[in-house]
Write a structure and sequence with these properties.
The protein is mainly beta and 350 residues long. It has 3 helices and 26 strands. It has 3 domains: 94 residues, no CATH class; 120 residues, no CATH class; 100 residues, no CATH class. The chain is 3% helix and 38% strand. About 5% of the residues have low confidence.
């Protein structure tokens, strides 16, 4: 029998919702101190916001915008079991509006200098859950950077916090990338995988210690400050990859080895939205209390239907955002409940 190292996923990842206010709001009840947040308003217009505890409250990026660093203090602080938001900010805490946040644990805000690569990076890593926040200064030429995971990452999201608009790549500057490492796709746009340029990842797959970049402004412009979110798969906790749509209302199941808590999907064969599907806290298997949320612009929910099952997820729509006939999709998924337990211990409900 296969085992997981994470019997209780909710101590490493959570997906929380809240109603905004015009005052400081504290989100509590999580099983850990979060170190990275991806926040999105889902009942009206509001840009998605990424924040992390390595860089702090005045370092944000908006995945659907071309801007570099957004210095708005969306997140006032990280707490032992949640986070505190500043008041009356449309993207994260406007009065009476509804929000959802995907939250990852790294290392409680504690970083270390990493010299595994040719260029020194600053790393905050959770090797158990396969997640790290990496910051570095660009060199403008081919180099390697330590990621601290001790396992090969399958997803890396990079962002310059110095340079705003990248000419020739449309509106948006954030790059989202997965195997094959010769290709890249923009998180900020709803377009396809954008091509095969070695200037992004030096056409080199990452290892268990480092990832490679070359000369692209999006990943390694000289003297720019960068953040990279790195994800490695952990059995029973996370799964990243591709699936092909069928065009049928009841599609083929995408096997994950766990019941998902949160899934993000992007069609890479054509122009469709990035979106996530999440089960809201307090609702179990088969519940209807779910949301689908767009990330590549400032509008709210989308009309995609994805059903979470005990061992994966299944698109239940013919919408091309999730299930066009013979269309390829990229996904990343995190667990609510694994099918397997630790060696000698059954998996625990979250």
């Amino acid at each position: 029998m296969a085992f997981t190292t994470i019997a209780k996923p909710s101590v490493h990842f959570d997906n929380v919702t809240w109603t905004g206010s015009e005052t400081t709001t504290t989100i509590t009840g999580m099983g850990f101190k979060p170190d990275a947040l991806l926040i999105k308003r889902y009942d009206g217009n509001g840009y998605p916001v990424f924040n992390n505890s390595t860089q702090g409250i005045n370092y944000n990026y908006l995945p659907s915008e071309e801007a570099a660093n957004d210095t708005t203090a969306y997140v006032a602080s990280y707490t032992s079991d949640g986070f505190t938001l500043t008041g009356n900010v449309n993207n994260t805490n406007d009065s009476s509006q509804e929000y959802v946040g995907a939250c990852w644990k790294a290392n409680g805000g504690t970083t270390s200098s990493n010299t595994d690569g040719a260029t020194t990076s600053t790393v905050q890593a959770n090797t158990t859950s396969g997640f790290s926040v990496v910051t570095y200064t660009g060199t403008g030429s081919a180099t390697t950077l330590g990621h601290g995971l001790g396992a090969v990452p399958k997803i890396i999201i990079t962002k310059s916090l110095t340079t705003a608009d990248y000419a020739g790549f449309g509106n948006g500057s954030t790059i989202y990338h997965t195997d094959p490492w010769t290709d890249y796709v923009q998180f900020a746009l709803n377009g396809t995988t954008l091509g095969d340029l070695d200037t992004f990842w030096n056409d080199t797959a990452p290892t268990s210690t480092v990832f490679s970049v070359k000369s692209a402004t999006q990943t390694n412009k000289s003297s720019d400050t960068y953040v990279a979110y790195c994800f490695a798969e952990v059995q029973g906790f996370s799964k990243f990859g591709y699936y092909s749509g069928t065009g049928n209302v009841r599609s083929t199941k995408v096997y994950c080895g766990f019941r998902p808590k949160w899934v993000m999907i992007k069609q890479i064969d054509g122009a469709e939205n990035w979106f996530s599907k999440q089960t809201l806290t307090g609702y179990g298997y088969g519940a209807e209390k779910t949301r689908t949320v767009k990330y590549d612009d400032n509008t709210s929910s989308t009309n995609c239907y994805v059903h979470f099952e005990s061992n994966g997820f299944r698109p239940t729509t013919t919408d091309h955002k999730a299930n066009g006939d013979d269309i390829k999709y990229l996904y990343m998924a995190f667990s609510e409940m694994p099918m397997v337990g630790t060696n000698g211990t059954i998996a625990l409900a979250t």
